[in-house]
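Attaching the record inline, Q. Sequence:
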Amino acid sequence: MKITSKWIVWFAITALYIAALGAFACFYKLGYVFDTKLQSEMAEVVRSKVGTLVSSIAARPTGDATIAETDTLKQMINNDDRIVDVVYLNPNATIRWYKDPAFWGKPFEEAVALNLFPTTAVYTAFTKQTLKVNKYGNGNFYEMAFPIKGAKGVLAGVVDLQVSRESTRSLVSSTMVWYAGAVLFAFALMGAILFIFIRVKIINPISSLNTAVNAVSLKEMTLSYPERNDEIGEVAESINSLFGKVKNELKGASTDVKRKKETESVWWQSLLAVSISKGSRAMVVDHDNNIMFTNFELNTENKEGPIHLLDIFGGEQTELIEVVGKAMDAPGRVLRGTTNIGGKAVEIRAVLLPGEGGQESRTMIVLEPVRAPGAGDTTVTNR
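Structure, as predicted:
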């Protein structure tokens, strides 16, 4: 997998992980904020009606609600669609007002038995005289019990609101949708910017460096790449430095090979000049039977590259090829034979000289005219 593909995969995984964590935290934080806001708004609704409720209770401490109280409580339900139900209780915990008159005057315990209250919020409001909020209905509703206090902080009654959380849930849902869109846009924009940066600043320079390296010839061994003041530029400099070292090594090796060839040529020319009798022809071939040294001049016109033994004698000289082949199979042993070259009988002597110290083996072949009669018949002997 290429760097670009790996980067896209890891960026997507990281972005999804961060987005999921953010969504989880945002969901619960928004729920808390909007629920707190809802409770504050309901408390403000009740607080705005406290004056009317307290004055009516002072005028009629027990019994049913006055007309003013009834109108006030109905307005609370009619003016705010979040308020599902309202129960108003006297200080002695009897029902002072409810939308169903059949409940008016009933004791708290009896109302509880009739499932008028979904939670224990009212009980807590009476016993502790503090606001109590409980969820019910799978978290879709709040029961909010507000203690109403009159003069000198005396409990004057309890207003119990049953409030829908639909608005809160709707706000949370819409906000989460907005959050998801914003996060998607932000990560997409950030990913595009980072992708362009990586592509322009890393991937493309590396591709150019790769092209430059592939374009280097063994003859020049020089990297053609523009200077960069970054890590890629340092890599290019290191590669160029390596090419320089390789070039020097190859140059030194080439010089050594050339020197060895010159030394070997002088050695063989001297050896052939001293050890081969006048009128005899001698040559030295490598392991591929390419001629390397001779004591006579070769006709190399119209011939490029190495000259093979068969280029001189042709394929009809089977006797010569046979002797040379057997010599190569028996290093250090002089093998002899006779043949006819140009109508003249010639004695063949061939010996394979193994190389030492990393040098290649060489085969020396001597062709000496046969002066004795009957030398045209081919024989091969081992001596």
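Residues 58 and 150 are 8 Å apart (CA to CA). The helical segments are 3-59, 67-79, 108-113, 121-128, 166-214, 231-275, 309-313, 318-328.

More tomorrow.
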